[in-house]
């Protein structure tokens, strides 16, 4: 199954030199699960010709805000709506989580709660999972068709599902602890020192990225020719 990665930003130069860009991180995260990948750098106005260019779609994180005025934001929202209308599976991570919600009727804002950085714990269904996070913006109003499937006290809509077609996550399962260390060093200038200290203290701790990677792959590979049953 070919997954089109819509890349909405680029990793910091220092992080990219050691760990690759965001699309490389997703290929490592989801590799070996029956998926292949092709990247379009939509942040650079490189868009696929149609929704049929891939079997499923994934929108990455970004340092930009979904509500900001960039020339690629409007076309990306149009692409999101076209993907949904075409019935293709769609996954969004961090900025991807936010821009999908915004494109489908939700609202994204810079949270007064500030930055969520480092290992965070979420109620995910009947379980608790931990994932690396790096964000200040949040989905503050979900679209009507979305269901919240993960949350914590800091982030009410930490993961959303839209029926059997869209699955989005606010945290970063693609960020290894080594990537987090690079972000703390090279992109932590706007983050309060106490939150960076917390993130540093968690760099040796395990997380559930592999579990969420499995859920993402299973979601892409779901047989959508079979109607869901109650």
TrEMBL record:
Membrane-spanning parts: none
Major enzyme class: hydrolase
Asked if the record carries the keyword Hydrolase, the reply is yes
Question: CDD domains recorded for this chain?
Answer: GATase1_1
Sequence ranges assigned to domain Glutamine amidotransferase in this UniProt record: 41-177
> From which domain of life does this come?
Bacteria
Q: Which UniProt keywords apply?
A: Glutamine amidotransferase, Hydrolase
Check the record and name the InterPro entries matching this protein.
ChyE-like (IPR044992), Class_I_gatase-like (IPR029062), GATASE (IPR017926)
Per the record's keyword annotation, is Hydrolase included, yes or no? Answer: yes
**Recorded E.C. number(s)?**
3.4.-.-
Q: Name one GO molecular function term.
A: hydrolase activity
Write down what this protein is called: Type 1 glutamine amidotransferase
List the top taxonomic levels of the source.
Bacteria, Pseudomonadati, Pseudomonadota, Alphaproteobacteria, Rhodobacterales
């Amino acid at each position: 199954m070919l997954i089109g990665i819509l890349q909405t930003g680029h990793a910091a130069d220092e992080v990219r030199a050691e760990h690759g860009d965001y699309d490389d991180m997703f290929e490592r995260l989801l590799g070996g699960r029956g998926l292949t990948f092709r990247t379009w750098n939509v942040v650079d106005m490189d868009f696929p010709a149609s929704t049929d260019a891939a079997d499923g779609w994934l929108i990455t994180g970004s340092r930009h805000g979904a509500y900001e005025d960039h020339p690629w934001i409007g076309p990306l929202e149009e692409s999101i709506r076209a993907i949904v209308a075409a019935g293709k599976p769609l996954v969004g991570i961090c900025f991807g989580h936010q821009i999908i919600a915004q494109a489908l009727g939700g609202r994204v804002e810079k949270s007064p709660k500030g930055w969520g950085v480092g290992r965070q714990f979420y109620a995910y269904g009947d379980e608790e999972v931990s994932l690396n996070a790096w964000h200040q913006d949040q989905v503050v109003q979900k679209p009507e068709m979305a269901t919240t499937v993960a949350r914590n006290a800091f982030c009410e809509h930490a993961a959303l599902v839209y029926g059997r077609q869209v699955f989005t996550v606010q945290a970063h399962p693609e960020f290894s602890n080594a990537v987090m260390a690079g972000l703390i060093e090279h992109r932590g200038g706007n983050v309060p020192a106490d939150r960076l200290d917390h993130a540093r203290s968690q760099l040796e701790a395990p997380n559930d990225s592999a579990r969420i990677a499995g859920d993402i792959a299973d979601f892409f590979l779901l047989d959508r020719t079979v109607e869901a049953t109650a």
